[in-house]
Amino acid sequence: MAEQRTDFFDLVRERRAELNISLRELELRAVDPETNQQAKRPWISKVENGTADVPTVVQLRALAAGLALPVRVLQEAAAAQFLDFSTQVWSEDRTTRVLAARIEDMSDEERRQLADIAETFARRKTQREGKSDD
């Protein structure tokens, strides 16, 4: 039997720990900017404990606000966990997912600059690895 995925649950738990905030603080921050509905602490606790049901769009937007993440990152984690659906941009690494989600909000010039930065890092890594092989 396949093991149940926990992408969404893990993301929420790990991000709250990374922000070093309590469940109460997350509840206060987790307000959907479109409806002003708040994600309640008992539900957030169920998410972190792995017992919550599939989140609603309102809950995802509220958590995104509370966790200071793009809503797309939470949507993709929920889709991966509950629907066994992964986008082409999916990565186990949260930083990669956040970068991919933020890119859509960038101008063409900003995306070119970010691509240049990535290429510079890749060249430096290759140079370092080449020197260490000598």
Automatic annotation (TrEMBL):
UniProt xrefs under InterPro entries: Cro/C1-type_HTH, Lambda_DNA-bd_dom_sf
Ranges of residues in domain HTH cro/C1-type: 11-74
Protein name as catalogued: XRE family transcriptional regulator
Origin species: Streptomyces kaempferi
